[in-house]
Design goal:
The protein is an alpha+beta fold. Helix content is 14%, strand content 35%. Mean pLDDT is 90; it is low at 1-18.
Length: 229
């Protein structure tokens, strides 16, 4: 079940009160070192090129918390848990944890078709598609190693709900991996067929949970965002 909460130890769950920064970004957890938010679909994580791409999560949060800075990113159309640091030391330590693959990430996706197996590992190298930005492409010679664990959560008549646990964190990894096993994510305007794009009003991909070591307390911190679909 998707729900919101913060796990500070193996036995104690604390629920944070509903809070929002300016412009309606839900806050899942915050303290003097970091803030964890539930990024809505359609909002950039960081600024893009052009005046129409100035509005983003990083700018909104920095306007409310001086010094807040982005640690990692979610695609614009992906919703869910994202963490920002409030000082340089926290930023360095969280960035190291992401780089060293110490952060545990869980996503939910709804994909086209009936996935026959119950679970599996997708191990397909990817790289930037220089001829078709911003897409990524499969490249077994020059691509970066990319692995995603998945399992079936629920089956429907024409689609399947999956839980995804990426081992690596490549750009568009989940989207291209699921396309490569012939189960593209519904609503994906980059990697899904026109038919699958039209089956959903948005990209059906949500960052459900992040688990990492708190840079100050060293306790394991697990934050979950409610699944909107």
């Amino acid at each position: 079940m998707c729900h919101r909460g913060v796990l500070l130890s193996e036995r104690t769950v604390h629920h944070t009160p509903p809070e929002r920064f300016p412009h309606g970004v839900p806050v899942l957890y915050h303290d003097e070192y970091l803030v964890v938010l539930d990024k809505p679909s359609g909002l950039l994580s960081v600024k893009g090129i052009g005046i129409d791409k100035i509005d983003c999560l990083a700018v909104r949060v920095a306007s409310a918390i001086e010094g807040a800075r982005i640690v990692h990113r979610l695609d614009m159309d992906t919703s869910g848990v994202i963490v920002m640091a409030r000082d340089a030391h926290t930023h360095r330590e969280l960035s190291r944890q992401f780089q060293d693959r110490e952060v545990q990430k869980t996503y939910v996706a709804v994909v086209g078709g009936a996935v026959e197996q119950e679970s599996g590992l997708i191990d397909i190298p990817i790289r930037k598609d220089f001829d078709n930005p911003p897409c990524q492409c499969v490249d077994y010679d020059q691509g970066k190693p990319s692995q995603t664990n998945w399992r079936v959560v629920e089956r429907y008549e024409d689609r399947t709900r999956l839980e995804l646990k990426p081992i690596t964190g490549r750009s568009h990894q989940l989207r291209i991996h699921l396309r490569e096993i012939d189960h593209a994510i519904l609503g994906d305007d980059l990697y899904a067929s026109k038919e699958l794009q039209e089956l959903a009003p948005r990209l059906m991909l949500h960052a459900l949970q992040l688990s990492f070591s708190h840079p100050a307390t060293k306790k394991q911190l697990t934050v979950m965002a409610p699944c909107p679909f």
